[in-house]
Amino acid sequence: MTQTTLTPRESIHPVDPRDHVATALRDLAGGERIDLPQQTITVAVDIPKGHKIAIRTAKAGEDVLKYGWPIGRATTDIAVGDHVHVHNVATRLEGLEGYAFAPSAPELEVRSSDRVFAGYRRKNGRVGTRNEIWVLCTVGCVANTARRIAEKASARFAGRVDGVHAFPHPFGCSQLGDDLAHTRALIAALAAHPNAGGVLILGLGCENNQLKALLDSAPEIDRDRLRSFTTQMVEDELEDGLAAIEALVAIAERDRREPVPISELVVGLKCGGSDGFSGVTANPLVGRVADKVAEAGGTPVLTEIPEVFGAENVLLRRAASRDVFDRAVAVIDDFKRYFIDNDQPIYENPSPGNIAGGITTLEEKSLGAVQKGGRAPLVEVLRYGQRVGPRGLTLLEAPGNDAVSSTALTAAGATVILFTTGRGTPLGFPAPTLKIASNAGLAQRKPGWIDFDAGQVLEGVPMDDAAGRLMDLVIDTASGALTKAELNGEREIAIWKSGVTL
User: Which residues form the signal peptide (predicted)?
Assistant: First the structure.
């Protein structure tokens, strides 16, 4: 997948020479003429900024290309200058597909980097970007108790660690089978996260997600930095919780940041509230940062499996081995069956906000979304609740939902999350989350949400220069600089509820 360079004052931007469409970089008025190097286009109708204009004709039934790949089929004849959107293009995807293992040569090689960040090296070898105390719970019944303990502890122990945070959730009881296992695995993975210098886990006592079973399932948790109890068995859960946190703070406050190579970074890659610029600016920009991390021996993690549909082959051809290919196909097909088993259409996407922003089909959304993974070989595939192992680009099973997938990225080990958006969202997660706007208008309108403006590449800043600036911000954040979400107190988790409730 190629990306051409944007230059200032362009009106439209085709991504790939093979494309039928280009993205409008400003509102286009019907009747105006646009001069391109090899053609002049007359705009047929008013076209909003971020939407697509035809630069080549397409007959009804013909594939329409963007990013050099089909984003759907024309439902009527499309002429040069036409607005290309849901009224004349429809998805070409349906049901399960067959995939052939046809790997391409890896485009990136690991090489040492002299770049470092100031992180917290943990006993198990992982490196955190924060030194916080996390309060987790086995079940929603004690969710507010966890929150109250964390609030009191934040005030009582202010300044001694990077923060005390509760991550409540509504699940853990009335769950069965794999659904219960997902909840247990997710909480256990969070309890082992390197950004937590200490962890308190609260149980109730009568829930399905028993505290002992959770702890027995997670041998990687550092027991020296863990405290836990069932609230039904203590007289005053608030005082017991505060005492437990005081003991954890006494341990964690001795930790110090130290220089570590960026090969120790685990970077979650996420997009939400995408628009027509996401695949032109923010996502390819994040892809370049993902490549820098992968080249240095670090671990970028891509997720949102339903937003891979239609762009699977872009990833699958980069599988480092047949085993990785087979496991990636299994995750993709299992997710499609998840929709089918629940009598839902597989391709019920993009969202209303995506469509308003100029995205027409799931293929277009997915082809833009997978660019966050850059060009690195795909070396690992994780199921929901699993944690990163081999270093390099990793694909993680999780839905597209912003909160669920970002929580899954954190549980997998992401210590920084890069979250691209064209529409904006205030959400934040346990790992520091950098919001990257696809357009300058969003960055200017919501400065309290946005950490980085990828719209600068629409103003002539070379993509590689912008990627260097974003990489600097990632390193600063990993070294302790607070994100907008952290400053706003936006910190939460969401668990994937995938089964029946008793």
Answer: none
pLDDT tens, position by position, 146-161: 999 999 999 999 999 9
C-alpha distance across the termini of the chain, in Å: 47
- Summary mean pLDDT of the chain: 93
Look up the pTM and report it.
Answer: 0.93
In CATH terms, 12-90 corresponds, of 3.10.450.50, 1.10.3720.10, 3.30.70.2690, 2.30.130.110, to 2.30.130.110
Dump the DSSP string for 243-297.
Answer: HHHHHHHHHHTT---EEEEGGG-EEEEEE-S--TTTTTTHHHHHHHHHHHHHHTT
In this structure, which amino acid lies at residue 135? V
Residue 423 to residue 446: CA distance in whole angstroms: 10
Q: Letter for the amino acid at 38?
A: Q
pLDDT of residue 9: 47
Angle at CA of residue 380, ends 373 and 182, nearest 5°: 100
Q: 3-class SS at 414? A: coil
- The torsion of the CA quartet 109, 393, 435, 370, rounded to 10 degrees, works out to 100
Sign of CA dihedral 376, 381, 385, 388: negative
DSSP 26: S
Q: How many CA atoms lie within 13 A of 208 on its CB side?
A: 18
Instruction: Say how many C-beta atoms besides its own lie within 10 A of residue 271's C-beta.
Output: 28
28 pLDDT more than 50: yes
- Residue-wise pLDDT tens digits, 94-108: 777 888 898 886 667
Position 435, amino acid: K
Angle, vertex CA 94, rays to CA 89 and CA 95, nearest 5 = 165
* Region 132-254: CATH code: 3.40.50
Bridge-based pairing state of the strands 69-74 and 89-90: antiparallel
Residue 422 phi, psi (nearest 5): -105, -15
CA 243 to chain centroid: 36
* Contact present, 403 and 418 (Cβ < 8 Å): no
Question: 3-state class of 94 per DSSP?
Answer: coil
The pLDDT confidence band at residue 228, using thresholds 50, 70 and 90, is: very high
C-beta neighbour count of 236 within 10 angstroms = 10
CB 400 within 8 A of CB 304: yes
